Amino acid sequence: MKSKDARLKHKGFFISFEGGEGAGKSTQIRHLVEFFKSHKIPVELTLEPGGTKIGQKIRELLLDPKHTALSHRAELLLYLADRAQHVEELIVPALKAGKVVITDRYADSSNVYQGLCRKLGLKSTIQLNQYATQGLYPDIAIVLDLPVSAAFARMRQRTLDRMEREKATFHQKVRKGFLLLSQKYPKRIQVVNAHRSEEEVRLEIQDLVTRRICQSKENSFWKKIKQ
Ligand code: TYD
User: Fold this and answer.
1) What would the 3-class secondary structure string for 31-78 be?
2) Dist CA 94 CA 79 (whole Å)
3) What is 174-222 written as a DSSP string?
4) How far is the CA of 113 from the centre of ligand 1 (A)?
5) DSSP symbol at 7
6) Percent of the chain's residues with pLDDT above 70
7) Best probe residue, ligand 1, of 113, 124, 142, 166 (max atoms within 8 Å of C-beta)
């Protein structure tokens, strides 16, 4: 129940995964989903952009490498439109149903990619995120942090989308941006060093999430985890 808005009160737990490209988010998200399932905790896995049907259309617009003419402001507004739909249609109902919601990217990505890297301003993206999310922020945002050279080595095999085609300097700014944001919100945003083995990263994330759930008095997931 992070939001002051009574309409958003819930008994769920909301987790976002953030970070630059190629940091191993998908793998670690899979591990965390399995962790909750093994404790019989209902979990909803989703992503941005593209967590809803409407969002999938917005995702196509955003990530198509042909769309080089997309302006920075239009880019931000499309990410926010996707988020507004995502929050209303999927995230809030799942949290109200008492589930753990894990999203692959959320509001902090707009703060970093558009606010800091595209230089639209952190103040603006924070305000606009507030509007798009109705003030719903994750209970914990996990930033997987990896040096850009290591991330590029991991990405070499893939076909790159419009954002991934940005130069290395952009990706450096993304990395710095997430670190800066984590200093601004040290409780909500937890940085995890992703330049380690999959298993080490998995265990640290599991530990961070478990501790945060046990600190929160608003849901009973901790009872299932302790069993
Ligand atoms: P995606 O294919 O989901 O990649 P990743 O595995 O990196 O999450 O691509 C999403 C891209 O959109 C990614 O480059 C980050 C970017 N993005 C923003 O720039 N702003 C945002 O608000 C969000 C949610 C994503």
Assistant:
1) HHHHHHHHCCCCEEEEECCCCCHHHHHHHHHHHCCCCCCCCHHHHHHH
2) 21
3) HHHHHHHHHHHSTTTEEEEE-SS-HHHHHHHHHHHHHHHHHH-SS-SHH
4) 8
5) G
6) 97
7) 113
Check if the beta carbon of residue 151 is closer than 8 Å to that of residue 21: yes
pTM strictly above 0.85: yes
Cα of 94 vs centre of ligand 1, distance in Å, is 22
Q: Which residues contact 197 (CB under 8 A, 6 or more apart)?
A: none
Is residue 184 within 8 Å of 108, Cβ to Cβ? no
What would the pLDDT profile of 189-214 be if each residue is shown by its tens digit? 999 999 999 999 999 999 999 999 99
Mutate to test the pocket of ligand 1, among 109, 110, 166, 167 (most ligand atoms within 8 A of CB): 109
| Residue 208 near residue 142, CB atoms below 8 Å | yes
* Structure-block tokens of residue 96: 């109200």
The mean pLDDT of the chain is: 93
CA 56 / ligand 1 centre spacing (Å): 13
The torsion angles phi and psi of 16, rounded to 5 degrees, stand at -115, 150
